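$ ./design --mode recover --in tokens.txt
reading tokens...
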């Protein structure tokens, strides 16, 4: 397997640090084994300071969470006094909530500037504290709806990358005609090589499998499905995936087109570079918004269209899952509502309970064996 670490250099460990694999402690594996015996439930850290409406919108989400019904222990990451005051206004006494605790963090990452430099130089920032709580085994997953670049940087620096994964990838689940589609990458890694796209394919397949999609097929997003279509990157990636994926028990559907994302018939995991994926995702969001508006005008009632659109922002569709790091990391939309943040927490707990990280680690171990 070619070494893409140089291309990923911005997120390499600090001077003197070993690669990220040392950041996955035995305690994390112990929690996974214990979970398999159903003796403990998911513990999820939630960044109080992330999001356009933070911290109020995050506090509203906490107030809306039924932790007992969801079997989730929630760790709210932010200034303790602020968290306690915000929740008190909403009728929640933190001291009386056994499934709710506060983990101290002093500040959020500013939107301006370099997020990587900031999280490296400010270990007390909320995304780093939340990511550290996963790498230490204190929690099983973490959620932020704040600065996405900072969340990616914190996850990679604290949790480390899965062995064999050169770069992280952000995956979203999209509703489609024949069932949900996992689209990966949608912005974590704007540039890619054929080898990186193949890694994204495997990571996306793991995510789809953890979500319960049976025997998902992988497709490569391209300008046409015929052989020989696409630029040099897509041609090289297609050849590499044809050679590697079947040997790992993964069905490869070949090249797929943009309309296949909304269909889900040919492939349930669709792979592209983060630049293209982000453009596609925002185009889909705009088209859905326009369609909802036109239906509201046509029928004189916006409620049915809004109900359908709202359904695409909850459940598995709530947020992006950062793939390729040794810790469940969910990154939500900065403008997310309290209801959407609740869905992010539920998605994080689900990924932890289905052992997404363990499945990804085992799959990449097999991939590394294949390409020796």
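writing sequence...
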């Amino acid at each position: 397997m070619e070494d893409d670490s140089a291309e990923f250099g911005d997120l390499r460990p600090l001077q003197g640090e070993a690669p990220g694999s040392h950041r996955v402690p035995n305690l994390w594996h112990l929690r996974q084994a214990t979970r398999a015996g159903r003796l403990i439930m998911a513990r999820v850290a939630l960044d109080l300071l992330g999001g356009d409406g933070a911290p109020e919108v995050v506090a509203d989400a906490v107030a809306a969470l039924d932790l007992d019904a969801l079997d989730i222990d929630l760790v709210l990451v932010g200034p303790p006094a602020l968290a306690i005051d915000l929740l008190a206004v909403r009728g929640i006494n933190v001291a009386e909530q056994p499934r709710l605790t506060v983990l101290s963090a002093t500040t959020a990452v500013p939107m301006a500037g370099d997020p990587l430099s900031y999280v490296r130089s400010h270990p007390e920032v909320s995304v780093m504290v939340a990511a550290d709580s996963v790498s230490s085994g204190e929690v099983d997953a973490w959620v932020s709806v704040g600065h996405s670049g900072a969340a990616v940087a914190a996850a990679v620096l604290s949790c480390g990358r899965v062995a064999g994964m050169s770069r992280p990838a952000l995956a979203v689940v999209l509703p489609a005609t024949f069932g949900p589609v996992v689209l990966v990458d949608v912005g974590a890694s704007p540039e890619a090589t054929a080898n990186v796209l193949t890694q994204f394919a495997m990571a996306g397949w793991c995510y789809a499998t953890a979500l319960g999609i049976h025997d998902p097929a992988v497709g490569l997003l391209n300008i046409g499905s015929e052989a020989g279509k696409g630029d040099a990157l897509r041609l090289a990636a297609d050849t590499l995936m044809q050679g590697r994926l079947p040997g790992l028990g993964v069905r490869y559907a070949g090249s797929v087109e943009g309309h296949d994302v909304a269909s889900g018939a040919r492939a349930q995991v669709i792979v592209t570079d983060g630049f293209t994926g982000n453009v596609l995702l925002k185009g889909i969001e705009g088209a859905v918004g326009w369609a909802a508006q036109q239906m509201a005008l046509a029928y004189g009632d916006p409620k049915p269209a809004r109900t359908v659109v709202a359904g695409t922002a909850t459940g598995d569709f709530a947020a992006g899952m950062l793939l390729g790091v040794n810790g469940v990391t969910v990154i939500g939309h900065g403008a997310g509502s309290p209801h959407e943040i609740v869905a992010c927490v539920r998605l994080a707990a689900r990924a932890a309970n289905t052992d997404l990280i363990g499945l990804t680690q085992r799959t990449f171990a097999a991939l590394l064996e294949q390409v020796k």
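exit 0
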